[in-house]
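User: Fold this; tokens only.

Assistant: Input:
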Amino acid sequence: MRHLKRALTGLLLAIGLACPSHGAEPVRIGEMNSYRAVPAFTVPYRNGWQLAVNEINAGGGVLGGRPLVLVSRDDGAKRADALAVAQDLVDKEGVGIIVGSFLSNIGLALSEFARRNRIVYLAAMPMTDDLVWAKGNRYTFRLRASSYMQANMLAERAALLPAKRWAVIAPDYEFGRSVAANFEACLQARRPDVRFVAEQWPALGGLDPRKVVPPLLQANPDAIFNATFGSDLGRLVHDGNGLGLFAGRSVVSILTGEPEILDSLADEAPEGWIVTGYPWYAIATAEHRKFVEAYRAAYDEDPRMASLLGYALVKALAAAIDKAGGTAPDKLIKALEGLSFATPVGPVTVRAADHQATLGTWVGTTAIENGGGIMVDWTYDDGETYLPDPEQARRKRPADADGGFGKKHQ
């Protein structure tokens, strides 16, 4: 049944039965993500945006009756592949906007592509701060709560712990380095007495507990900040428990409360970790329940954090396109700057100062229920609260961030 529902959903999208008018010219958006490389995150994201596209088209589309179409490609989880896909989407598919991506390095590559080609790029999932700050540009916007925002949320909780000696374990690529640096800075700003006594930087997807755990044990920290995920986190939890790494120590872990991650850990999910995540099963607002019910009806499965992001991405796109009256880059940029749009978890605004959306996330503690991990004692942290004020944010961007160069988008 699940596979049948998925097939029918894809078929409806492909043949345009949900489109408001068979004769109306579609508004084409170029979408790409690392579907083959990280399906646990990107497939739920795709389900989310497909659901939103179907809803928008069933409700009349955009621009007074034009169907919204996302032309989707796999970016290969490689910078060169992503750039080639983006060029193909612009040159051959005639898209007016590009969206998507998961890995931070891919997001940065697409941001530079957008700047050079003068086409708007709305990043869905990359968390690197450079995307909107140090390497920000007028064509690039980001939906998800960033590395800084989530690290700041976690540091607020970590500062309440008695721990003074901290260790860090994070993947050795842009996201891991960035989020670890942000956590250290935000925690030390609140707790000058804290020291970081050990660091481990395993390659993404290549964590070897035999190399990582002993140095951490030798440093004897009071607490650990973790930024690993996927199979790396699974190995760390399994072997770390066996070697006593977590016994008697507090753990603060970014993203670990997301269903994609807790479900993969199953009955080995940790208890008592302070995490960011998405407790969809406990969010009782009417709009969120409506989203969950629609998602379950379409895909016969529960939503993930990525599902919510994909859904919100398309809602933001539709609102921006309608406000701009089309996809002309200059008009779309003006529409996105300061745009407010509805999501299943409340209204979100795209800040004009740094092109960062104020979508927040949930912070809580992990627990085991019915043989699997959940989040308890959680709160929703609004993104705006954990960002620098607009003037500070502007100073983090390049002096020419509001300029552009390269061939003009046709």
